[in-house]
Amino acid sequence: MIDEYGDVEVAPGAAIRFRTVGPVDGAPLMLGLPLMASHTDIFGAESAATIDGYLDRLTDAYRVLLVDYPNIGGSTSPLPSEMTARRVCSDLLATADAAGFRDFVYWAYSWGAAAGLQLAARSDRLLALVVGGWPPLGGQYADILRAARRQLDDPPQSARVVLREPAQYAQWTTFYESVLDWPEERAVAEIDCPRMVFFGGSGDVDPGGEDIWIASTVRERRDELERLGWTVREFPGRDHSLCLDPGTVVPPVRAFLDQALSRAPSDER
Length: 269
Fold this sequence. Notes:
269 residues; alpha/beta; Rossmann fold; globular
């Protein structure tokens, strides 16, 4: 198994740090935020159990790509004012290219999952999409933008741990502003790669005092998502921190991916 780090320049003076772990011929899988290339450097040695819990359960058959993004850890890109959905997708695809991935699985949680929906809608390179902790339909983009704006002057501690400085929190407002007019219903209906959404049954959140109905929305629209071809998995009683429990999350998602990729033509991998 190979474990190595690299950097890719995405603009003059702006680079993204990434880490690839797993067999060279493993199925390509990008794990997005909140998992990162510099995970333990950012969150401390006690976080090793989380990142290792994912890697230990995946890297027998998958080549996993972890990315310090956006502008965290060893990366220097993008500036807060530049982090539109278009820029996010461009940067993630450039990182996949640098890692030697052509087509690949994308799996992320919360904001990383919202970015994955944009990636799936704007690119034809995904072998499969796993969206955790965010509703593919009914996403409250205007509401979460309002919450982000409310916290600009005093970012929450959960964000400060990741960010280099509080002013960088403005990157979230840039992103959510850029998707306000995104045609969600049409775009999600056109995603045709194998796709899964999972969530904690108690995973509604209230950042900045704004009610964001993540679990409630996925549950309400479950039938519609399943008609569109989504696999939907609820973890009853779990909250939005579900992604920090790889022992619970990885086995069912891995089973979904194993089955999805077994049906994919070998020349797509």
